[in-house]
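job 3f2a | input accepted
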Amino acid sequence: MAPNAVRLLLGLELRRLADPVRHPRPGAWIAVLLPVALGIAALWLGAESVRPDATNGDGAIGLGLLVSSPIAFWTYPVLFRPADDALLRRLGIPPRASYALRALRLLALTLAVVLLLMVPYAATGVLGTVPIAEALAAGLVAWGAALFGLSGAAMRIVTPGRRVELTSRMMGPDPELVSAGPLVWAPLPPVIAGAFAARLVLVGALPPLGWTALLAAGALGLAWLGAGRFARALPRFGPQANEMAYAPPPRAGEAGLVIGRGLARVLPRRAGAVRARDAAVVSRRFRWAGRITWPVAIICVLALLRAGESAAVQGWVTGAGALVLAMHAAALIGLGRLERGGMRWMDRTVGLTARDRLLGRWAAAFGMALPLAACVGITWGLIVPDSSGWMWLLAAAASAAVGSAASLAAAGR
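job 3f2a | predicted structure (413 res):
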């Protein structure tokens, strides 16, 4: 497995993980810690409704499904779509060394999922050996089965002359979807295996932690067998470095800012150009503001679905949404301060008015908040009695307007 390459990758991975500590950046810490804090708070407040009873078979299966599902469905991007894949392949890192690093990343995700799902048990005072053993068994089995299954599915796709499976033919008339059928179905066996492993822990032939150790050994074997499959599939699924270039080169104007697509089509042309520019600058200079939206939206939706009738959960979701909107406004004001320190001769040359700038900036800010407002608003309107989800869209629009006005004021004339 090229031990030297594995040690090199592990050293680089540790340096990358230590970089936020050695060179702290508030935005990076906010983007990581805020979703974690919100997730822990949601699990703690809704502990009774999200905690399966680990002492019976049905509860063990439910806990196993909760643990194994995110692991199974995150395996493909961890294995085949990491951001550093093209660079490592260009440097000549052996496939098995890359597989070892990605397996460790998936293992870290597995342990994080297990820790998060133990929060409701700690909140209700029933954390003990049984739920820990069930969660670890489910997570480790799903980890090994997912590495083995996803790498095998990718290998089957690249095998010349393979026969199309019956399950793949059920995908419909699209030939590309049919050819990718093994990868579509591959996450299901790890989910089922994880649920079965959690249920197996309750069998009295071995103590709970004994079952966990036995199942962990089997999971390690599956993960080891997946290395060869991954090596055979990587040349097809790993992006080549030259794929990052345009081929053929784009015509003039096609590689610039995207204007006039989607909902932005209703904006005037100049305001649409401002929206595209501001959205691009915010996504680069204030990346944490955009990254925080989807994790918080997903956590809030799950909390409402599980315990939306609880006043405590409603207050928590409202506070989380308000915090995200405040962070978006802070990013807008930071954008205005950046403008104040530079020259806007291009704005004056094009003839952008204050109205164009305000409308375009408001559209960029509202688009950044729309995933949160739409997802949480729809769920809020369906779950929370005697209330409407429209207030989330109105709050997002109002917050974007206030933040845009403050941003232009910070930018000056």
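job 3f2a | The CA atoms of residues 123 and 191 lie 26 Å apart.
job 3f2a | closed
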